[in-house]
Amino acid sequence: MGLRPVDLARRAGVSTQLVRNYEAAGILPPAPRSDTGYRQYGPEHLSALLTYRALAPGFGAEISTDIMRAVHNGDEALAYRLVDAAHAALHEQRLATDAANDALAALAAEYVDDQPITGPSLLVGELAHRLGVRTSALRVWEAAGLLAPSREPGTKYRRYGPEAVRDARIIYMLRQGHYYFEQIKPVLDGLRRAGSTDALRTAIAERRAAHDRQTKAMLYGAALLHQLINETAPQTNEPAQLKEQAPPGASVPSAPVP
Predict the structure, then answer these.
(1) Which of 94, 110, 115, 235 has its Cα between 20 and 30 A from that of 71?
(2) How many structural domains comprise the chain?
(3) Is the overall model pTM greater than 0.70, yes or no?
């Protein structure tokens, strides 16, 4: 039975215009037209729409679009590579969070050290070079209330003393971990005020929880993607061939239920 754009939209909880946009972007397979020019969608379009909507929260809109295009083009290998690359990227983010946790803990210890912080006073270009960021990034951090450099009396050049340099290192590492300014500010406030690492631990825990949520979303989307590929791929005797080649005692996955 043919489906109208509004039928797909209702099933997916989106607008009819978005359904048309998805088709134009290649997220849905091309829809044939009736004699009067109306789009004629079918179950395959609904499956593609629901699959994309499931993929996007975990893989992101851009990668999910590329995956769907690959599937519709019959390039399963590319779709699998895109899925693997997304999982690998998330794993790298997890490792980066772990590394940042260790490094941030060492930096946070400087806030509770009784000894005064020593070090040179740096100009904005010098600090940017030391951190490996643009000078504009330091100005953005200052505008967000995260950094407060002093000014030279005559030239009004920004000067970052040892404490500001320490704060900038904390900000840089948190930004590398994709933390937002509103998450970084309470971390710095707690460290500056009482040397408290509570906000820092909370921020890292929230980041790890976000990774877990993304993994769950990716698994759910991959399940629908697997189903969609099985629906669109030509049937083969691969399971039987695997069974013939399997060594004695090895288990062979059963064929998918159509």
Answers:
(1) 94
(2) 2
(3) no
